[in-house]
Design a protein that fits this description.
One of its GO terms (cellular component) is cytosol. By secondary structure, the protein is α/β, with parallel strands linked by helices. It is built from 13 helices and 13 strands. The protein folds into 2 domains: about 5-120 and about 330-340, NAD(P)-binding Rossmann-like Domain (Rossmann fold), CATH 3.40.50.720; about 120-315, Rossmann fold. The chain binds nicotinamide-adenine-dinucleotide.
């Protein structure tokens, strides 16, 4: 669109003009902005991803702040346009901010906000869901059932992986990685190996205490290990879940060589950002290793998948829905706290 045509305006006489590039859930964020003398313009254009040109048109000549989305490319062009319009703040409705060029924002004096911490449990739960679905081949079995192929119980029908006693590997044990690790360790009595640039002391303490609890109850205790290298995790883990930030150091962190280091029957989960995996290399790996399975919430070039991925039975793919749980969608309040004048 050359000019945005569909705009919803709240509090037209407000002193500050703020643009939201998308309608967002709930009304509390709207009320908070209005209480702070904001004229709020929400773009209701029926186009999923707005281009830089679209957003420049939305910013216009006077704009004090923008609330944007992870699908938008917030770099030099947009921060320059926002700054020229008098803008002082940009808030990214996302935990990750790999779509934001923070240096460009600094250059133009625009403060940047994001929403760290609000999606921890919902993202960890989706990673756990994908892990279970991949381990127990839920999608394949569901398709089989609906296709009318089930003609009676068989001992070898859709044999999957038993998680109990296996090793879960977490790459990036920050908020989400640690929450996921705890779910898998406590819920399925898995051993943990993790790799992060920093030590996750709280996670280690949790697994140690849980191991003591299991032992006291006559069960085999779980174990944990902080790996010195990422490759150690890839080689030892049965399940590997990726939870690092996306930056220059984690782009294609999982590539052809690293895929080859994983167990032939390993399961790889990605709920971080698509480019953390070299998706073309992953497609090849899945083709040549039918017992290797993957669960993906994010893709290298969203909304597209690399050719061949959609046809592979050993891949479970969902459309970036880690944040899509009711509590988060109905009550995204922590986000608004980041947006101050
Ligand atoms: N799928 C979704 O909808 C969704 C939702 C929320 C967050 N995310 C993604 O998840 C990411 C993590 O979120 P978080 O809240 O846990 O962030 P966090 O900052 O708490 O954790 C990220 C961890 O990655 C580690 N890390 C950085 N570089 C690394 C490297 N090279 N190797 C190993 N570890 C490295 C950091 O030390 C940190 O502990 C976000 O940046 C975002 O991209 C995705």
């Amino acid at each position: 669109m050359a000019k945005p045509v569909s705009i919803e305006v709240w509090n037209p006489s407000g002193k500050y003009r703020v643009v939201s590039t998308k309608p967002m859930p709930g009304t509390r964020w709207i009320n908070l902005l209005i209480q702070n003398d904001v004229r709020l313009e929400i773009c209701t254009e029926k186009k999923t991803i707005l281009s830089v040109e679209d957003i420049i048109a939305l910013i216009g000549d006077k704009c004090d702040g923008v609330i944007g989305q992870l699908t938008e490319d917030w770099g030099e062009e947009l921060f320059s346009a926002l700054s020229k319009a008098g803008g002082k703040a940009f808030s990214n409705m996302a935990v990750g901010y790999n779509n934001v060029d923070v240096d460009a924002a600094n250059k133009y004096g625009v403060a940047v906000g994001n929403t760290p911490g609000v999606l921890t449990e919902t993202t960890a739960e989706l990673a756990a869901s994908l892990t279970l679905a991949a381990a127990r081949r839920i999608v394949e079995a569901d398709e089989f059932m609906r296709a009318g192929l089930y003609d009676g119980w068989l001992p070898h029908l859709f044999v999957g992986n038993l998680l109990k006693g296996q090793t879960v590997g977490v790459i990036g044990a920050g908020r989400i990685g640690s929450a996921y690790a705890r779910m898998m360790v406590e819920g399925f009595k898995m051993n943990l190996i993790y790799y992060d640039l920093y030590q996750s002391t709280r996670l280690e303490k949790f697994v140690t205490a849980y191991a003591a609890f299991l032992k006291a109850n006559g069960e085999t205790p779980v174990t944990w290990k902080r790996a010195a290298t990422m490759d150690e995790v890839l080689q030892e883990a049965d399940i590997i879940s990726l939870h690092p930030v996306l930056d220059k150091t984690t782009y294609h962190l999982v590539n052809k060589e690293r895929l080859a280091k994983m167990k032939k029957e390993a399961i790889l989960i990605n709920c971080s950002r698509g480019p953390v995996i070299d998706e073309a290399a992953l497609v090849e790996h899945l083709k040549h290793n039918p017992m290797f399975r993957v669960g993906l919430d994010v893709f290298e070039e969203e909304p597209y998948m690399k050719p061949g991925l959609a046809e592979l039975k050993n891949a479970i793919v969902v459309p970036h829905i880690a944040s899509a749980s009711k509590v988060i969608i109905i009550n995204p309040n922590p986000y608004i706290k980041k947006f101050r004048y």
